[in-house]
Amino acid sequence: MINSQRKQFVESRILHKVSMPSQYLGGERNAIVKDHRTVKGKICLAFPDAYTIGMSHHGLQVLYSLMNRRDDWVAERAFCPWQDMEAQLREHNVPLYSLETFTAVSDFDVFGISLQYEVSSPNVLTMLDLAGIPLHATDRTMADPLVLAGGPCCQNPEPMADFIDLFVTGDGEPALPMICDMWLELREQARAAGFAEGAAGVQQRADALQKIAAELPFAYVPRFYEPEYQDGRVVALNRTRNDVPETIEPSVIRDLEGIPLPTSPIVPYVECVHDRIAIEIMRGCPWQCRFCQSTVIKRPLRIRSVDTIINAAMESYRNTGFNEISILSLSSSDYPHFEELVKRLHEVFRPLGVNISVPSLRVNETLRTLPALIGSERRGSLTLAPEVARDDMREQIRKKIKNEDLFAGCRNAFENGFDSVKLYFMCGLPGERPVDLDGIVDMAEHIAGIGKEVKGRYVRVTASVSNFVPKSHTPYQWNGMQRREYFQWAHKYLWSRRKIRSINIKCHDIDTSLLEGVLSRGDRRTGKAIELAWQRGARMDGWTEHMDAQRWWDAIADAGIDIDQQVHTQYGLTDKLPWDHVNVKYGRTFLEKEQSRSLTQLEAMADAK
User: Fold this and answer.
1) Phi, psi of 490, deg, nearest 5
2) Residues near 351 by Cβ (< 8 Å), separated by ≥ 6?
């Protein structure tokens, strides 16, 4: 049931004026189009970034497949348009629409948004505004779709609390259908009685949301919680009614094997960041690195069987024709049947000319033989994430890897035809010393030297250095983030230590990292800064060419946010944190113990040379 009139208008009057028009057309292979008259509920899955990013996100394909597998629901997609398309939509008064049927987003029952990156927050406001949905959750009535959010940024939902009706943390597969069904039932009851308008309509919606919040422990409805501040920081989050829970539990899949993989993923017409089949082999991580939010929020560890993975990969290949398969997890080489899986994938797909990609590799003994195991005709660069280069700092961050395994793996890679290595490091970790920065360059140069021994020339080694942001629900959540001046010095220092030309040191943009700190560590007042930045033109700021840092710093100042207190000042272990009401497995007690151990280790490190 395609809205032919809107589709024809967009094709004839708009698309010739915008770049990459096919990203706004839909109709891709494996896209699902249902007649809306034959279903009960409609959800628009939204990704607040460009099509080329959103279509590369495995989670979107998972939820799209999950909801469309049901006969009584239809799931369609919408992405944030680029500025040229946004301008055309506004000029011609065309609402944000779904790609499958060109249906206005406001006509769906649920508008489900994936919050993956804090700096993309203004894109959510762009999409809501283009859809004609009131920006603020408390201004909506039952006539408006449920604005639902999930994803890693929901671990601290407060900065976006003004704009989202309901947040979900944890696994989306069990939570999304339950919320959708309950909302649809409540909405149909309201529709039968007549959608109220004005204050009565707002109250009607609040009553419906209360029922969901009271029944589903993973549903956080911010309007029922009021922050209390003292000396510029949150000291309490008070419920405005007693029939909603004090804290929120994560949604958890117990049996990952029982959740079907998407085996008919949509094949885009345009080149995306990842043009390949993605197969999730494992969820969670066996390690407990102190800096890593993902390892905390994706607990417990759950795996799929080798047969399930192979069968899903083959079915996906038949349905798409992609010539690359990527196996996904937080730490792929820790999958308990890793060697068997990779060998079988090669046995099945190498005769078909399909490459096997194995990202998320942990530096361990497996790495010593991995390059020979995963070698293919298209091998080129080996990507590893040592995070830090010295053993005592590794002990501090709880990433227990060995340099000897890393160097042996790199040597094996060069012997098997790989010609470059990319290394991921962090800068600004608690207790970081100049010797830790020295170690980054020393490690890169040592690997380049191994390449010279094997190949007769220095190989390309790229050290990608990110600026550390202490994230919620990690043992480092109490730590302050390093200041701008420190990162400026550290980046300059790293470059001054570089001696080999084949070594490249790429440091992340400092303004973007500091902004990520503001947005990820903020409380509900941060929403005012997001809205001000959006009103002043913040669009697609996750893309370097569109980021205007000064616009953000002005908006943050005008919102009255004390950056030093919010980002750089350490919390005490007993302090209330803006995100404390969101629970994770093991809980705050475990994180407190890990932070205390970290502080003890930092004292021992302080005098190390």
Assistant:
1) -65, -40
2) none
With CA atoms as reference, report the closest residue to 120 among 540, 545, 553.
Answer: 540
Concatenating the DSSP letter of every residue in 415-465 gives: HTT--EEEEEEEES-TT--HHHHHHHHHHHHHHHHHHHHHHSSPPEEEEEE
For residue 128, give both structure tokens.
């809501």
Contact 390, 436 (CB under 8 A): yes
- Best CA proximity match to 381, nearest among 418, 412, 423, 425: 418
pLDDT tens track for 111-135? 999 999 999 999 999 999 999 999 9
Reported as a single tens digit per residue, the pLDDT across 395-429 is: 899 988 888 888 988 998 898 888 899 999 999 99
347-372: pLDDT as tens digits: 999 999 999 888 767 776 666 666 66
In angstroms, the CA 31 to CA 61 distance is 10
- Asked whether residue 609 carries a pLDDT value surpassing 60, the answer given is no
Beta-carbon contacts of residue 219 (< 8 Å; ≥ 6 apart): 166, 167, 168, 175, 179, 212, 213, 248
Q: Is the peptide bond before 260 cis (omega within 30 degrees of 0)?
A: no
Q: What are the angstrom distances between the C-alpha of 562 and each of 10, 342, 557, 558, 593?
A: 44, 50, 8, 10, 29
Strands (E), 153-256: 166-168, 219-220, 225-230, 233-239
Ramachandran assignment for 231, one of left (phi > 0), alpha (psi -120 to 50 degrees), beta (any other)? left
Query: pLDDT band at residue 374, thresholds of 50, 70 and 90?
Result: low
SS3 474: coil
42-90 pLDDT, tens per residue?
Answer: 999 999 999 999 999 999 999 999 999 999 999 999 999 999 999 999 9
Apex CA 584: angle with CA 261 and CA 464, to 5°?
70
User: What sections of 321-433 are H helices per DSSP?
Assistant: 338-349, 370-374, 391-397, 403-415
Is there a contact between 89 and 95 (Cβ–Cβ < 8 Å)? yes
Q: One-letter amino acid identity for 184?
A: L
